[in-house]
Amino acid sequence: MPRRNQGPRLKWLAKRGGFYITWTEGGRSRERSCGTADREQAEAFFGEWLQARGRRGGPVDPSGIFVTDILASYAVDREEKLAAPERLAYAIDPLTKFWEGLALSDVTPQTCARYATERGRAPGTVRRELGVLRASIHHAHRYGRITRLVPVELPAPPESRDRWLTRKEAAGIIRAARTPQARLYMPLFMLIALYMGRRSEAILSLRWPQVDLVAGRINFETPGRRRTNKRRGKGVPIPQRLLPHLRRARKRGTDLGFVLHINGERIGKVLKGFKAACARAGVDDASPHTLRHTAATWLMQAGTDPWVASGFLAMSMETLLRVYGHHHPDHQRQAADNIGRRPIQTISGAKSA
């Protein structure tokens, strides 16, 4: 029986003083020197080697290629094209462990269901990970590595969460974040997220040249950032209640520095500090992304025109109405008012002969 295979990997071999590509083929361990001790050069060599290996001999039947080979090739090709490649790595790691040693033809509705059971994570997480497997298969087929597609059965999409903060809860969290135990950036992060409804990444990557305190607008589109479906928005007006907080923060910042920082360095994540503030405020089941949900909900509750709200939040109209539309005071009001009215005009029956 062939040795269980994790796919080609880049490995440092100290005894040889260089990087090698290692993999299993026909039950035997194989290796190929990258000819360098430099990590960056080795990764470039590894990527070229994978592409050449995929082209060798033309497309193969799914029974003749390992799932881990497909995943490894997809990761190398997509890594530099993604805004957050670490998220792809988080998905590929459990996929690799589960499908280790299995051929692509072993991807069936039954094995996908078993993956969901053994993974033991939320349906949304499992769906996202299996979505990466599906994307890697389509990628391999598009570039001629396999002869046919193999369907991947995904769990049903979870219902959208309707967790948002009341104004009392939001005020409590911000007060809790202003305690001596919290850093200076946490209250400002929460205020920007609540008043402008942006994702954590858009806020944490914000630099002062993107903030025009005179015109009162922010360009959340970071220069040089790859465009994705997650829009950020240009020239977004700053709410009046947020302006004084930004002006005070500007005095502590530098001309080209990050709006939120620790000793001038960019902040990686705020989850730990946010959770601590929530715990002190007695608020459960909230995450930094809850602040974006809250901003959208407050706009709908205030009766904001959906077209205006979707533009302000850099959110599609379809998503806004599907997830938050029921919070609008006029939601389905016209239908409710019209249901009992007489029709304005009736259509007569068939014409008489």
Describe this structure in words.
The chain is mainly α and 353 residues long. 45% of the residues lie in helices and 8% in strands. The chain has helices spanning 39-55, 67-79, 85-99, 109-119, 123-142, 167-177, 185-196, 200-204, 243-252, 271-281, 290-301, 306-313, 317-324, 333-338, and strands at 9-13, 18-25, 28-33, 211-212, 217-218, 236-237, 261-262, 265-266. It has a 3-stranded antiparallel beta sheet with strand order 1-2-3, with helices on one face. Strands 4-5-6 form a 3-stranded antiparallel beta sheet, with no helix packed on it.
Key attributes of the depicted protein:
353 residues; mainly alpha; hpI Integrase, Chain A; three-stranded antiparallel β-sheet; 8 strands; 45% helix; disordered N terminus
Principal-axes shape call: globular
How much of the residues is beta strand, in percent? 5-15%
State the assembly state of the protein chains: single chain
Please give the largest β-sheet.
Answer: 3 strands, antiparallel
Strand order of the largest sheet: 1-2-3
Q: What's the N-to-C terminus distance?
A: 81 Å
Q: State the share of residues found in helices, binned by percent.
A: 40-55%
Helix vs. strand class: mainly alpha
Low-confidence stretches: 1-5
Number of strands: 8
What number of structural domains do the residues give? 2
